[in-house]
Amino acid sequence: FIGAEGTLGIVTKVVLSCPRLPKSRNVALIGCNSFEAVQKALSLAKEELGETLAAFELMDGDILRLIEETVPGKLPECFVDGSRSGACSVLNLSNISPFCLLVETLGSNEEHDSLKMDRFLELGLEHDIFQDGTLAQDGKQIQEFWSLRESCNPVTASNGYVYKYDISIPITDFSDIVMDMKKHLLDRTDVICVSWGHVIDGNLHINIISPGKFDVDEDILNLIEPYIFENTICRGGSISAEHGLGCTKNNYLTLVKSEECVKKMYAIKSMFDPKGIMNPFKYLPNK
């Protein structure tokens, strides 16, 4: 790659690494009553699962409720009242766990790795870190558990226009910044704020939905921005994580970079890309 990372450049060569599939795979869905419990669960996972820990995904109760309302029967029974074989017949959505964790391990020794996951779940329940949990029993259940996590984006999109924010932030602030946004939007009864993320990476997805409306509302947008970016920066985070600035956050680059720095970035881009044909309209603020 020749150029500046994420801004402009030319790919001259690509090398693909194809690692072998792991011999063992374990996936658990866990309910937690508080974000403090989520943090304790992460510490316990690092301690007990060690090198086999491959994923530690978070979904809040609001996205779980939205998923169940949109796709009835999607949630496993440990997150709802009642009993069912595969799906609850009667749901009490108010009793869904405030936080849901999807924990996955990958390894080379099935017996050894399964014992580690069993120990992790046992300790979490014993010390009241977990409200409840369930371990996938086969490949089909593993796919069902991941399908729950992967349904977050399509479910929000099917309900209305989504104001999407992909931030990186200290894990200790995950819940607080979401609560701040909900309080900030308290007078807007026509929106729903949900969140999920990759806890290990410190990457949080905050999604604000206008149910039944599929066009942007400038009043809502102006209420959210730049508030969410300023709040993120105050907490030592970054306004863009895995999805970059693109053409929706580029005008907020000056919140994280000095005016002098941005001028130099423009100068470098003009030197290598005077006609603006490399990744046009992205990253740098619009002039």
Number of helices, counting only DSSP H or I runs of 4 residues or more? 9
* Pattern of helices and strands: EEEHEHEHEHHEHEEHHH
- Mean pLDDT rating: 87
Instruction: Please outline the major beta sheet.
Output: 7 strands, antiparallel
Order of strands, widest sheet: 6-3-5-4-8-9-7
* Beta-strand content bin: 15-25%
**Radius of gyration of CA atoms, rounded to a whole number:** 21 Å
Structural class: alpha+beta
Unreliable stretches? 81-91
* Overall geometric form: globular
For the record, give the distance between the C-alpha atoms at the N and C termini, rounded to a whole number.
27 Å
Number of strands: 9
Estimate percent helicity: 25-40%
Description:
With 287 residues, this protein is an alpha+beta fold. Helix content is 36%, strand content 21%. It has nine helices and nine strands. The chain has helices at residues 35-49, 61-70, 110-126, 139-150, 152-159, 174-184, 218-224, 227-234, 259-272, and strands spanning 2-4, 8-10, 24-32, 53-60, 99-107, 132-135, 160-168, 192-198, 203-211. Strands 6-3-5-4-8-9-7 form a seven-stranded antiparallel sheet, sandwiched between helices. A two-stranded antiparallel ribbon has the order 1-2. Helix 1 runs antiparallel to helix 3 and helix 2 crosses helix 5. The radius of gyration is 21 Å and the shape is globular. It starts with a strand and ends in a 15-residue tail after the last helix.
